[in-house]
TrEMBL record:
Its EC number is 1.17.7.4. It comes from Parerythrobacter jejuensis. It is an enzyme of class 1 (oxidoreductase). GO terms for biological process: dimethylallyl diphosphate biosynthetic process; isopentenyl diphosphate biosynthetic process, methylerythritol 4-phosphate pathway; terpenoid biosynthetic process. The gene is ispH. Isopentenyl diphosphate binds at H57, H90, H140, S239, S240, N241, S283. The lineage of its organism: Bacteria, Pseudomonadati, Pseudomonadota, Alphaproteobacteria, Sphingomonadales. One of its GO terms (molecular function) is metal ion binding. This is 4-hydroxy-3-methylbut-2-enyl diphosphate reductase.
């Protein structure tokens, strides 16, 4: 355990705390785009604008959009006629826009373009007659959306290496695989290795499905965790990419806590420790990172250090219907 460093000011009552802040962290391009889509839809069409499912998995973001005029619902049948509706960044099954069109609803699709890429790959693999093994977490909105791009029975979900061992396909079956975009890079590599060992002819996607932001944030945690006594991850409990950041730290032997806001930090967590790592999932705004720094500064004299694993400059275009 790292001992608290000595404050430069000998008269300072608060012990020192090194803070290793991960970079990149927080919002990714898909989240930025999704939030802007809701905001622009409200500006263009007026409030309320309905949003099917949380636009991104972050309570602060959702509450902020509610204040601007967004109404969040779980299913399309909760959306009244003649009002605009936005589909979340996680993507939706094909049946959802089909139902919106049947009802003649004005809808805007905020699906992350990297998720949409996986959807298109699924369509192409089915067109080639392949059965898809999809690596993902059952019940996650992205998984529901991706599996909803094909007919029932054309895609099989696996979550673990053990699931691969239970598959009953033969080596001669025409198989391909895809993955959820927000998975653990290391776990997914193990599952893909198991798939390829069991089914040597299985067809891989042209490019890795795990998105750049997920990979980069996990790489950044690998930078900060080894030198930290505790890693704080800002993110929602239903945020897949945030949960994976906790797992990455714990695999490296450093305890990690998932928090949504600074007020969830228990002062007992930092008693006697000298270094804390700090990062944020792809749906958490930088404002929440600064909020945590300010909270820690109430108890300790904080020395900030940023450790960068990659630089990000990705920007995704908005839907054409909002560009007028």
């Amino acid at each position: 355990m790292n001992a608290p460093f000595q404050s430069p000011d000998e008269n300072e009552a608060k012990p020192g705390l090194r803070l290793l802040i991960a970079a990149p962290r927080g919002f990714c391009a898909g989240v930025d785009r999704a939030i802007e889509i809701v905001e622009r839809a409200i500006e263009k069409y007026g409030a309320p604008v309905y949003v099917r499912h949380e636009i991104v998995h972050n309570k602060y973001v959702v509450d902020s959009l509610k204040e601007k005029g967004a109404i969040f619902v779980e299913e399309l049948d909760e959306v009244p006629d003649n009002v605009p509706v936005v589909f979340s960044a996680h993507g939706v099954p094909k049946s959802v826009p089909a139902e919106a069109e049947r009802r003649e609803l004005l809808y805007v699709d905020a699906t992350c373009p990297l998720v949409s890429k996986v959807h298109r790959q699924a369509e192409r693999q089915i067109e080639k007659g392949q059965h898809i093994i999809f690596v993902g977490h059952e019940g996650h909105p992205e998984v529901i959306g991706t599996m909803g791009q094909v007919e029932p029975g054309q895609m099989t979900l696996v979550e673990t290496v053990e699931d691969v061992a239970r598959l009953d396909f033969s080596q001669e079956d025409d198989l391909s695989f895809l993955t959820q975009t927000t998975l653990s890079v290391d776990d997914t590599a193990d599952i893909i290795a198991a798939l390829q060992a069991r089914y040597p002819k299985i067809v891989a996607p042209k490019a890795e499905d795990i998105c750049y932001a997920t990979s980069n944030r996990q790489a950044a945690v690998k930078q900060i965790a080894p030198g930290s006594d505790l890693v704080l991850v800002i993110g929602a409990p239903n945020s897949s990419n945030s949960l994976r950041l906790v797992e990455v730290s714990e695999r490296l032997g450093t305890a990690a806590k998932l928090i949504q806001r600074a007020d969830e930090i228990d002062p007992a967590w930092i008693e006697g420790i000298g270094t804390i790592g700090l990062t944020a999932g792809a749906s958490a705004p930088e404002k929440l990172v600064r909020e945590v720094v300010e909270k820690l500064s109430e108890w300790r004299t904080v020395e900030e250090n940023t450790l960068a694993a990659a630089e990000e400059n990705m920007v995704f275009k908005l839907p054409r219907q909002l560009m007028d």
